C-alpha cells in the first residue's frame, strides 16, 4: 500500500471512529452500533435462547443484556485455537436514580448516582443529553424495551461562582449527592416521568405508553473532534473504552477470515465486571462451550485444550505521559501518544501480561511494522485493572493487556492519538491473521 492509500485508509477509519463514538452514548447504543456494522459485514446474529447451527467458515454475533457482545469467525477447517480480542462497552458517568425527580429553588433537577470512577470536575458547565434504555407498557399490556437518545442540551450542572467560594482553586471536594444534580427545567410541577413521556413520543412515536422502568444517564453533547495543528489527537467522551471496541471491530472486519477469531465487548468493567454480561460472568464461557460442542472436538477435555491453545488480547486504554505531569510516570515507562500500542505490566497481576504473551504481541507488532511501548505504574502508586485478569481467571485463557495511550482517563472528555488508532488496528489484524500462536 502506497503512502496516499495508507493516509486515505487512516482518514476513513478516523471518520468511522468519530461516527461510532457519536452514535454510542451508552453501552446499549454501542452494542447496537457494533451489531449493525457486523451484520453489514456478513456476520449472522444468534439468539442465546435458541439452538445454534454453526458451520465451518461461518461468522456469527450474539449479544447479552443488549449491552455486551461476542462476535466470532470460524475457520473452514477444524477449530483448534481462537485469536481473541477483549474490550468493554461501558464508561464512567452519571446515571439517574430510580426516583430521580427533585426540586430546589424553583428548578426541576434529576438526582444522579455515580457509575464507576468518574473524574467529577469536568462535568460542570457542560451541555448534557440523556440516553439509555427505557421499558414501557403498551395499552394492551405488552412490555417493550426502547433505546432512548435525547441528543440535545436538556440539562447542565452549573458551577458555583468563584465569588461565593474563593478557595475553590485551592482544591475542594465535590459531593455528588448534594452538588451535582443536573438542572433540567424551571418548573414547580414537572417530573421525570412527564419528560420521558414527551421524549418517547417525539423520538419513537410512542404516544400512549406507561414508563415502567429505565436505565438512563447523562452524557456530554460536544461531538468527537480531531485536535491539534496536524490533527494528531482525537478528543471525545467515552474513549475509555469505546476506542478499543471500535479498533477490535475494525480488525475483525478487516482480517482475512481464515483463522478462528473472537471479539468480546463486555459491559460493567468500570464497576468490577461482576454481572451476567460482565467479564466475571459466564457469557464468554457459555459461548466457548457451544463453539466447542458444535465445531470443536466436543467434551470438557477438548474445551480445555481449545482454551489453552488460544490467546486473549485485552484492549483497554493506557495512561499516556502527560506533558504537565511527567512526575506521575515512572521515568522509563511513560508511553507517548502516537508512539504505538502499550503493553501493560504489573507484578501483582492487576494486568494479565506475562513474558510469554508479551513476547508474542511484540512479535505481532514487528510483523505489522507497528511500534510498541510498555507501561508500569510507579512503584509508589496504586494500579488500576482491566477485564484481562478477570477473563484469564474465569476462562483460563493466556492473556495480555494492551491499549492505546490516552490522557484524562475517566474524564467527561478524553484524548488519544490519531496515529495510534491505525497502529493498534494493524497489530490486531496481524494477530487475527497469524497462522500459529506458538
UniProtKB/TrEMBL annotation:
<keyword id="KW-0378">Hydrolase</keyword>
<keyword id="KW-0862">Zinc</keyword>
<keyword id="KW-0479">Metal-binding</keyword>
<keyword id="KW-0645">Protease</keyword>
<dbReference type="InterPro" id="IPR001948">
    <property type="entry name" value="Peptidase_M18"/>
</dbReference>
<keyword id="KW-0482">Metalloprotease</keyword>
<protein>
    <recommendedName>
        <fullName>M18 family aminopeptidase</fullName>
        <ecNumber>3.4.11.-</ecNumber>
    </recommendedName>
</protein>
<dbReference type="GO" id="GO:0004177">
    <property type="term" value="F:aminopeptidase activity"/>
</dbReference>
<comment type="similarity">
    <text>Belongs to the peptidase M18 family.</text>
</comment>
<keyword id="KW-0031">Aminopeptidase</keyword>
<dbReference type="Pfam" id="PF02127">
    <property type="entry name" value="Peptidase_M18"/>
</dbReference>
<dbReference type="InterPro" id="IPR023358">
    <property type="entry name" value="Peptidase_M18_dom2"/>
</dbReference>
Amino acid at each position: 500500500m502506497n503512502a496516499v492509500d495508507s493516509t486515505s485508509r487512516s482518514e476513513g477509519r478516523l471518520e468511522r471512529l468519530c461516527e461510532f463514538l457519536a452514535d454510542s452514548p451508552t453501552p446499549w447504543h454501542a452494542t447496537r452500533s457494533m451489531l449493525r456494522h457486523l451484520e453489514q459485514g456478513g456476520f449472522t446474529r444468534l439468539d442465546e435462547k435458541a439452538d445454534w447451527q454453526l458451520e465451518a467458515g461461518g461468522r456469527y454475533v450474539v449479544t447479552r443484556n443488549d449491552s455486551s457482545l461476542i462476535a466470532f469467525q470460524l475457520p473452514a477447517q477444524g477449530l483448534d485455537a481462537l485469536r481473541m480480542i477483549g474490550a468493554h462497552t461501558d464508561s464512567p458517568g452519571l446515571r439517574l436514580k430510580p426516583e430521580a425527580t427533585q426540586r430546589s429553588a424553583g428548578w426541576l433537577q434529576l438526582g444522579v448516582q455515580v457509575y464507576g470512577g468518574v473524574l467529577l470536575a469536568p462535568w460542570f458547565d457542560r451541555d448534557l443529553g440523556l440516553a439509555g434504555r427505557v421499558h414501557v407498557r403498551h395499552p394492551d399490556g405488552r412490555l417493550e424495551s426502547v433505546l432512548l437518545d435525547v441528543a440535545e442540551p436538556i440539562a447542565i450542572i452549573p458551577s458555583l461562582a468563584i465569588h461565593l467560594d474563593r478557595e475553590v482553586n485551592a482544591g475542594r471536594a465535590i459531593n455528588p449527592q448534594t452538588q451535582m444534580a443536573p438542572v433540567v427545567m424551571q418548573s414547580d410541577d414537572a417530573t421525570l416521568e412527564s419528560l420521558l413521556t414527551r421524549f418517547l413520543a417525539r423520538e419513537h412515536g410512542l404516544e400512549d405508553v406507561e414508563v415502567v422502568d429505565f436505565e438512563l444517564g447523562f452524557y456530554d453533547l460536544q461531538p468527537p473532534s480531531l485536535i491539534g495543528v496536524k490533527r494528531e489527537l482525537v478528543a471525545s467522551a467515552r474513549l475509555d473504552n469505546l476506542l478499543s471496541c471500535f479498533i477490535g471491530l475494525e480488525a475483525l472486519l478487516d482480517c482475512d477470515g481464515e483463522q478462528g477469531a473472537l471479539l468480546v465487548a463486555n459491559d460493567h468493567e468500570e464497576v468490577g465486571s461482576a454481572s451476567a454480561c460482565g467479564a466475571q460472568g459466564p457469557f464468554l464461557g457459555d459461548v466457548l462451550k457451544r463453539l466447542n460442542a458444535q465445531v470443536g472436538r466436543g467434551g470438557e477435555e477438548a474445551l480445555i485444550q481449545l482454551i489453552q491453545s488460544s490467546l486473549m488480547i485485552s484492549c483497554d486504554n493506557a495512561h499516556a505521559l502527560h506533558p504537565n505531569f511527567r512526575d506521575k510516570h515512572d521515568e522509563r515507562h511513560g508511553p507517548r501518544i502516537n508512539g504505538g500500542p502499550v503493553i501493560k505490566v504489573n507484578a501483582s497481576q492487576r494486568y494479565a501480561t506475562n513474558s510469554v504473551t508479551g513476547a508474542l504481541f511484540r512479535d505481532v507488532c514487528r510483523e505489522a511494522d507497528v511500534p510498541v511501548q510498555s507501561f508500569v505504574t510507579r512503584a509508589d502508586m496504586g494500579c488500576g485493572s482491566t477485564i484481562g485478569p478477570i477473563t484469564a481467571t474465569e476462562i483460563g485463557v493466556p492473556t495480555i493487556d494492551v491499549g492505546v495511550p490516552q490522557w484524562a482517563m475517566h474524564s467527561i472528555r478524553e484524548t488519544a492519538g490519531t496515529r495510534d488508532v491505525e497502529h493498534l488496528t494493524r497489530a490486531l489484524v496481524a494477530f487475527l491473521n497469524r497462522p500459529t500462536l506458538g
